[in-house]
UniProtKB/TrEMBL annotation:
PROSITE patterns: CYT_DCMP_DEAMINASES_1, CYT_DCMP_DEAMINASES_2
Protein name as it appears in the record: Nucleoside deaminase
Domain CMP/dCMP-type deaminase: 2-116
InterPro entries to which the protein is assigned, alphabetical: APOBEC/CMP_deaminase_Zn-bd, CMP_dCMP_dom, Cytidine_deaminase-like
Keywords, alphabetical: Metal-binding, Zinc
Length: 146
């Protein structure tokens, strides 16, 4: 198993935990040089906050708790492709790399919802262009939406 697969697998576990708590099944973690620094799950319903997506909440919490606002040395791993809102946060935080499992399109096909703007479209029209690797453990990521 590659390091990306290992960390995506952990993001999928976080997503399952979020689902068990009554939230949508999304999980994310931040890593530096392959070491997990912090993780976060979707807590939209738990916190009554429609913006508490895993990726955005992770960035907010990490920056607040560490005082670090330039994430140029970090990789964000997500159980699903970041939405447009989360992709914007990734740009503003300067995240170096994004790795995800299921794509927005695949999630929408299963759930019938969401804003279907690929994160790479947001990145292309932004001043910061993180590298993106998608479809890691893709089959497992799609199963979250069954």
């Amino acid at each position: 198993m590659t390091k990306d697969e290992e960390l995506i697998q952990r993001a999928l576990i976080i997503a399952v935990r979020s689902k068990k708590q009554g939230n949508a099944p999304f999980g994310a973690l931040l890593a530096k040089e392959g070491t997990v620094i912090m993780e976060e799950g979707n807590q939209v319903h738990t916190n009554s906050d429609p913006t508490h997506h895993a990726e955005l909440a992770l960035i907010r919490r990490f920056c607040r708790e560490t005082g670090v606002t330039d994430l140029g040395e970090y990789t964000l791993y997500s159980s699903c492709e970041p939405c447009a809102m989360c992709a914007g946060a990734i740009v503003f935080a300067g995240v170096r790399r994004v790795v995800y499992s299921a794509s927005n399109k695949q999630m929408a096909e299963k759930t019938g919802g969401g804003i279907m703007v690929p994160c790479q479209d947001v990145f292309k029209k932004s001043p910061h262009h993180p590298s993106v690797k998608g479809n890691v453990l893709n089959r497992e990521g799609i199963k979250l939406f069954d």
